[in-house]
Design a protein that fits this description.
Layout: H1 2-26, H2 28-34, H3 41-46, E1 52-59, E2 64-69, E3 74-79, H4 83-98, H5 102-116, H6 121-124, E4 129-133, E5 159-162, H7 166-173, H8 202-211
Parallel strand pairs: 1-4, 4-5
Antiparallel strand pairs: 1-2, 2-3
């Protein structure tokens, strides 16, 4: 049985490699994104300026790891929070926002900030730009809306950005922006993914941004 599984795995890997090769031949830009190789840390750091920091998250069953990446340093902090409790807070946060229950939303956003931002607060102070790389359920959390005890939103302290991974961020930062002043906005506000419902107000937000 073990030998048979090994053969099936080998065939599946070959099929995958062949498919990627066909995509590379047919669409260079698309292939570059889906096959991007993890860059060395120094290459990612070399693209950052003195005003930008990256927070990359990884969640396990019993903890969260937060990597803080700046032009000069890389540090890692382990936060003892279970995945179940984290997802419970994110669900409460999204429900409070969706139903416009201010107290529930405020409590969850404050608690999540204490978990996700406060442990690395001293490391990102002074950085104007903050790039968030979420993991698992954190993709469904509006980091920019996280509140402090002083009722300050994170977006009030940093220019916020998001990336699916450091590799994709590295690739995107290396692309030269096209000239012009046109705006393309994509809103997936009506989509339901797993246990997460669509985010209300997304279409309205994109339309208002287009007017700017």
């Amino acid at each position: 049985a073990s030998h048979q599984l090994s053969e099936e795995l080998f065939r599946a890997q070959n099929d995958y490699n062949n498919l990627i090769q066909k995509i590379k031949l047919g669409n260079e830009a698309y292939a570059t994104v889906i096959t991007v190789e993890p860059p060395p840390l120094k290459d990612v750091q070399s693209q950052l300026d003195d005003q930008t920091a990256i927070l990359e998250y990884w969640t396990s069953d019993e903890s969260i790891v937060i990597w803080t990446i700046t032009k000069e340093k890389l540090t890692a902090d382990v936060i003892p929070v279970s995945r179940r409790n984290l997802q419970r807070e994110i669900n409460a946060c999204r429900k409070g926002i969706s139903l416009r229950v201010t107290d529930v939303a405020h409590e969850s956003l404050t608690k999540l900030r204490q978990i996700l931002i406060d442990p690395v607060k001293s490391k990102i102070n002074g950085y104007k730009n903050l790039v968030i790389i979420p993991h698992r359920s954190l993709h469904f959390l509006p980091f920019h809306a996280l509140e402090s005890a002083e009722n300050k939103f994170l977006i009030e302290q940093h220019v916020m950005g998001y990336a699916p991974s450091a590799s994709i961020l590295h690739y995107c930062l290396g692309k030269k922006p096209s000239s012009g002043n046109r705006f393309l906005g994509l809103a997936l506000g009506d989509m339901t993914i797993g246990n997460f419902s669509g985010l209300p107000g997304t279409e309205l937000e994109v339309n208002q941004l287009a007017e700017l």
